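pipeline/complex-builder :: batch 7 item 3
reading input block
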Amino acid sequence: MATVDDMVPPGEDPAPYHEHVDDPRRRDFINIAAVSFAGVGAVAIVLPLINQMNPSADVLAASTTEVDVSKIASGQAIKTSFRKQPLFVRNLTPKEIAEANAVDVGSLRDPQTLAERTKPGKENWLITLGVCTHLGCVPLGAGEGENKGPFGGYFCPCHGSAYDTAARIRQGPAPKNLVVPDYNFTSDTTVLVG
Amino acid sequence: MSFPWAKHYEPKQPLMRWLDEKLPLPRLVYNAVGAGYPVPRNLNYFWNFGVLAGLALAVQIITGVTLAMHYAANAGVAFSSVESIMRDVNAGWFLRYAHANGASMFLLVVYIHIGRGLYYGSYKAPREMVWLLGVVIFLLMMATAFMGYVLPWGQMSFWGAQVITGFFSAIPVVGETIRVWLLGGFAPDNAALNRFFSLHYLLPFVIAGVIILHIWALHIPGSNNPTGVDVKGEQDTVPFHPYYTAKDGVGVGVFMLVFAALIFFSPNLLGHPDNYIEANPLSTPAHIVPEWYFLPFYAILKSFTADFILPAKLWGVLAMFGSILLLFFLPWLDSSPVRSANYRPKYRLFLGVLLLDVLVLGYVGGAEANARNVILGQIASAYYFAHFLIILPWVARSERPRPLPNSITEAVLAKHGGTSLAHSAVTA
Amino acid sequence: MVRAISSLIGAAFVFVLAIALFGTVKTAVEEPAAESAEHVFHLGPREADLPSAGLAGKFDNRQVQRGFQVYKEVCAACHSLKYVHFRDLTKIGYAEAEVKAIANQWVIEQPSINPETGEAATRKNAPSDPFPSPFINEIAARAANNNALPPDLSLMTKARHDGPDYVYSLITGYQNQPARLLKEFPGAKTPAGLHYNPYFANLNIAMPPPLTADGQVTYADGTKATKDQMARDVAAFLTWTAEPNLEARHAAGLAALIFIGIFCFLAWGAYQNVWRDVKH
């Protein structure tokens, strides 16, 4: 399809080919129309070629995760996976909740209260993605004995971002708090994420 | 460039002038398929098929690269990864049907392109190199198409791989070793599938490279034409652009119409139902056949059923490869100085028989092997070899060609009744 | 020189083919191939007249849903449907909640792993799951079916010539072996454990007649469940499982053909326009 946008060669006057032009505009209209149609057709074909890279139906369908939280003791956390990303489910201790609430929200880089990041009546359940908002590493702090960092929450070893007990960014290069996904408690002990 | 009256690229805008000094790519395109390439003015629609073949290759590369983003070349999951493309990937069914039918469109267009060359003597001097490179492209296409057909890992894929690699086991002494080397095992499996995928991805780009050489070689003597008479002067040619770009536009439209009809309304017409059954190394389908474009060659393979010095199997394989490789010698097998079959009454007749013969071979290749079909195949195979190796070299000696026109322009004017009235415009 | 060599090579191929031809003719005359029962008694499929057939074919969702019911209550006991997912059922008109309920109540459970012990276990199906296979693997399937393997049905209508018609004809095509067949081919008596069916490639199929009586399933939409009706419905369902994008394909195809048709017309006009002053 060498025809697309060059019916007239670059730098050439079409006149030499059409010596007896009576109405050039009407005559060349059909050339322009044909080339435009080819262009529209090419664009129409490009759309599926781009769309094929979007998540496929099977990926979209597997986008909820059910978590059983009955076995997580106060002060413990588990690491599970949601949409192929790590998910942290943490049962905060009263001390950790108090620490989180004691912070002046206005001083935070990404101001949010603990209550905004948990469900009413379930303030001890901190559910976040385990994906550092800097460049996507998995922060430490969810596993037993891991470094929780200077603010007692999570600590990303890649570039030193430190999160507090509400998983809010307190130090280091990360711009945002750890993301809280959509979830709700389907019973006292099960959480449906996504 | 070939003719002294070819237009020269003269960029007007400063940016294009700057680019032309640093990297004269627009100049290359201008001289290859632009106004800088003078082409005989009398080409008919059969000359569309070269451009259409290029278009088909582009379609195959684009759809193939996108399919490769979803396909998994592992015997355990290949079949279900294709099903996931068909069901779950966005527009996946469109891409896959376009790729599968695109292969058929590519081969169809190329067969017409080859037939055009045979009829109008485009393989003859001074265009032998164009023809030789074309045969190389054809061989590469056959290899690519075969390996692509293995990838979905259906029953026909698997047994096609088994049978085609089986050809090599006909070679005396080392045959079995070569077959095992090709497959990376004793039967088609992961190793074979993975290397076929790798090569299937590679070869189209090799084809694209050889196509560039093919076009390069073509531009030295310039295009042939339906009279086969050499270009004598400027009045015999028109610039490729806009004249043949406009004509190719019509060809592209019709090509797309047929292609779309296949993709959207009969995507499995040219496929085989057995390839929707996952490969099973323990059970051969009742009736295994290759894709339609290999059927004539498959018929030649099947026709050699008797041992004579060499075993029948080796004769079949030799004949099948020979039937393609003999095309390399065509420019020297045909000694007639006249190119176009329009002026060669006897050759034209034999060529007509060859066309019929290849259609018969195609039918036999796909039909069941009963006595009638085998006999038909054996007679048709014999004509195929006789045509190229015996008839073609000798026919020129006893043939009296019809008088050739003095020039392309003369032929064109004769067709229009010799009058010089201005051809009135069609659009009104 | 070229002529001599090529003629010699050509003659060699023609000569070998002549020998082969002689052999073929001799065999055909002396010992003609015997007719086989499959060749004489095999029947091409009867038309199922499904709305999905033809160039503008569409699915009748009510029929496809009825076919799904037949699959669920009759076929699913032996045949898997592994390339189809429960979530796909939304495309034939089930609501998300209905799909969830269908998946949850599906008799055969999804293989999984006990999260405590790591042992193999099963769990209830979710919409994102494929239809579970009734047998854990091929050996189990054969063991339960007199050494025959019930094929997966996801692609059945694309894996046979005229697939929808084939499915419809096969499941309604069981009959007694014709007396003429036994007379002409005494060796072709249907073996014990197999069933005579002229629509099956080799006439003897391992699957017992799946639809045995009218009213074998009770359709929710009140359609009378004759054997013929159930067979058509399940053929419609399997047409959908094999080609779920059929409607989108036909719709896109119509638009594409119209668009390309107009382009052809314009391209022809442009061609005439460009060439108007040049004879060719």
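note: Chain C touches chain A through 16 residues (CB under 8 Å).
queue -> next item
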